[in-house]
Every structure is written in structure tokens, then in C-alpha cells.
Amino acid sequence: MADIDEPRVDDHALYSIGEVINELREEFPDVSISKVRFLESQGLLAPARSDGGYRMFDDSDLDRLRFILRQQRDHFLPLKVIKSKLTLWERGEEVEGDEPGTLRSALLEPRSEAVPTAELLRRSGLTAEQLDALVGNGLLASPVDGVFGPDAIGVAAEARRLFAQGLEPRHLRSVKHAAEREADIVSQLAAPLLRVRNAEGRERARALVEAVGDSVAAMHRALLAGEVRRLLE
Questions:
Q1: Alpha-carbon distance 131 to 213, whole Å?
Q2: CA distance 138 to 169
Q3: How many domains does the chain have?
């Protein structure tokens, strides 16, 4: 914790880790020193060090950290996907949409870890009654020993946004049903390979599921965008 009090070097616009937290806290109330250190340990940040070993962040480090935190908060992306987006961000390329190669991770890799009920409520902003309603309407699987699966945060956070617009849990059943029907399409194509038990067959099944899932998701997004645009015409 010693580097919290490291003085700022104004000549080079450098910030201590404590000052970084203060700069970001208004937009990211949950940001913490331990979180910043964790992101550094995972290779997403590389702040300079003073002669005494203190972390020294510049404005580009702050921009990078904002980008990472927004990707986690707004898109619930795993660090592996954020790393791939950072490469594009560093080159100044557009990264807000689904870049080629990132949908695989979004589809098949958890966007977060399994989460206890209390943490899910805190991070999503849902009430306990709303969370129970999502479970009751099939949007979320029932928790096991009070812990929800890794996809729960993404579903819960988006549900909160929709509830704020006046929708109710029962209105979201159609979203769940649409996802199930799309998964059935993928399952029908992959079923023969999924029955193969050797490693090669399983890898081929995974590749097929990724490719088909990518196309189905992209088609769904395009069709939905078309329908929404028609509402505004």
C-alpha cells in the first residue's frame, strides 16, 4: 500500500495509484487498488516505476484503464477478449462492435466467474424480487448453494436496463425462447460430431459450434437491427 502516497510528478503528468483511483472513482465507483494491481498482473497494464519501485501512471495509462473498465462494465467481457480489443485500441481502430475473432470468446467463454447471490444483486442493481422473477421466468438458472453461473451477470445487468424502461420479467421470455431456438439450430448441425468421444472429434465439434454460432448471432443482430429501424420509419 506504500505507493498510494507516492507524490505526483507534475512535470511528466504522472499519477500515483491512489490518484488514479480518485480520477476514476466517479465513473467506476467499484474501482480499487487491488483491481488495478490485478489488471497489471494479468498483463493489461504496464505502468512505469519510480526509482523507489512505486507505480507511476501517465495519461495514456488512465485512458487504457478507462477502456478496460468500460469493456468489463458495459460488455462483461473476459480479460482474454479485452486483451484482443486492446490491440485494436492501441492502433486507433474501431473496437466498439464485435470484431472478427472475438465472438468466439463471447459465445463460449464465460464473461465472468460464478457469482454469489449478494454479489450479483450488488453488481447488477437488481432487487431480490426482480432476481427471483428472472429465475422464475427461466431467464436465469437457479443458483446452486447460493451461487449463480458465469453468464448471470450479463443477463441480470441487461434485465435491469430493460426493467428501467418498463418491461417485466415475463416480457423477456421471448428473448430466452429465441436464444433456445437458435441454439437448437447449432445443435442440429453439431450433433454428429458431439457424439464423437475422441479429442479430434470434440475439437471439430467445437470449431463447428463456434462458426455456426458466430453466423447465427450475426444474422440475429442484423435482422433485429432491421426490425428496429422499421419501427422508426
A1: 28
A2: 9
A3: 3
Statement to judge: residues 126 and 87 lie in one domain: no
Name the amino acid, one letter, at 91. Answer: R
* Residue spans of alpha helices (H) in 91-198: 103-108, 117-124, 128-136, 152-164, 173-194
Torsion of CA 141, 145, 151, 157, to 10 degrees: 90
Domain boundary among 145, 167, 189: 167
Range of the domain at 134: 110-167
- The model carries a pTM of 0.52
Burial 166-180 (b: 16+ CB within 10 A, else e): eeebeebeeeeeeee
Phi-psi region of 43 (alpha: psi -120 to 50; beta: other; left: phi over 0): left
The verdict on 38 and 63 lying in the same domain is yes
Q: Which residue has the cell 472478427?
A: 100
Per-residue pLDDT tens over the stretch 10-26 = 445 789 999 999 999 88
Task: Read off the CATH number of the domain in which 138 is found.
Answer: 1.10.1660.10
User: Rounded CA gap, 158 and 74, in Å?
Assistant: 9
User: Of the given ranges (40-54, 96-110, 145-159, 162-176), which has the lowest mean pLDDT?
Assistant: 96-110
- The verdict on 57 and 24 lying in the same domain is yes
